[in-house]
Design brief:
The chain contains six helices and eight strands, in the order E-H-E-E-E-H-E-H-E-E-E-H-H-H. The longest helix is centred in the C-terminal third of the chain and has 26 residues. The N and C termini lie far apart (50 Å). By secondary structure, it is α/β, with parallel strands linked by helices.
Length: 203
C-alpha cells in the first residue's frame, strides 16, 4: 500500500496489522501530504491501494493520484481524521473520489467522543466486512467486561460463559445478519445491556 513517509502511526499501523506492506513515498511540502508524482511512480500490479492521509487540517485533493489509481484498479483510501472537512463536497461541488474515508472520534479530534472510529463508504462488501470485524471485537470486549463483574452476578458463572460463547459463535458466523435493533441493543460498554444473555440481571 502506497502512502506518504510523513504520516500518523494510527494510519500506517493497520497496514501491517492487515498483513500488507507499506510503501513510503516522498512528501509534498506545500501540503504536508503525499507527493503525487512520487506516488504514481510506485503504482505497480502488486499495489492494492493508496492511503492518502490528511494531516494538520489540510484537505488533500491530489487528483492525479486518484485518476492514476482508478486507471490501474488501485483502491483509494483517505484518512481524514485530522481534516473532517474533507468528508464534505470539496472538489468543485463533488466529494473526494475515494473508496473509503476513515474518521476518528478520539477526544483530540473534531468529533471527540472518547475512543470511536468511523468508516464512510458506498461499497456494501466493505460495509459488511467492517460490521463483521467490529462486531467480533465488540463481543471480545464484552466477554472481558462480563468476566470482570462475575463475582457480583446472581447467575452461575458457567451459565453466563455458555451464553457468551453462544453469542460469539452466532456473531462470527453471520455478524452482518443482525437486525438494526439487535445491533443497537448490543452497543455500549455496560455488559448489563447485553440482551443475548437470557435472564441476565445485575445485583
Amino acid at each position: 500500500m502506497v502512502t506518504a513517509a510523513l504520516n500518523w502511526p494510527g494510519a500506517v499501523g493497520p497496514i501491517t496489522i492487515s498483513g500488507l506492506k507499506p510503501v513510503f513515498v516522498d512528501v509534498d511540502m506545500d501540503l504536508a501530504a503525499i507527493d503525487q508524482r512520487a506516488a504514481i511512480e510506485r503504482f505497480e500490479p502488486n499495489i492494492a491501494a493508496v492511503l492518502i492521509t490528511h494531516l494538520f487540517g489540510n484537505n488533500v485533493l491530489v487528483p492525479n493520484i486518484r485518476a492514476a489509481a482508478r486507471a490501474q484498479g488501485i483502491g483509494v483510501i483517505d484518512d481524514v481524521c485530522q481534516s473532517i472537512g474533507a468528508a464534505k463536497a470539496i472538489c468543485d461541488g463533488a466529494h473526494l473520489d475515494a473508496d473509503a474515508l476513515a474518521l476518528s472520534g478520539n477526544g483530540a479530534k473534531h468529533l471527540g467522543a472518547g475512543e470511536l472510529g468511523f468508516v464512510m463508504t458506498e461499497d456494501p462488501d466493505l460495509i459488511a466486512n467492517v460490521d463483521r470485524v467490529s462486531f467480533v471485537k465488540l463481543i471480545a470486549k464484552r466477554r472481558e467486561n462480563i468476566l470482570s463483574i462475575l463475582p457480583r452476578l446472581q447467575l452461575p458463572a458457567e451459565r453466563i460463559l455458555s451464553c457468551i460463547s453462544e453469542s460469539e459463535a452466532q456473531s462470527t458466523g453471520d455478524a452482518t445478519g443482525a437486525t438494526q435493533e439487535q445491533r443497537e441493543t448490543s452497543l455500549g460498554d455496560d455488559p448489563r445491556t447485553f440482551r443475548s444473555v437470557p435472564d441476565f440481571q445485575p445485583v
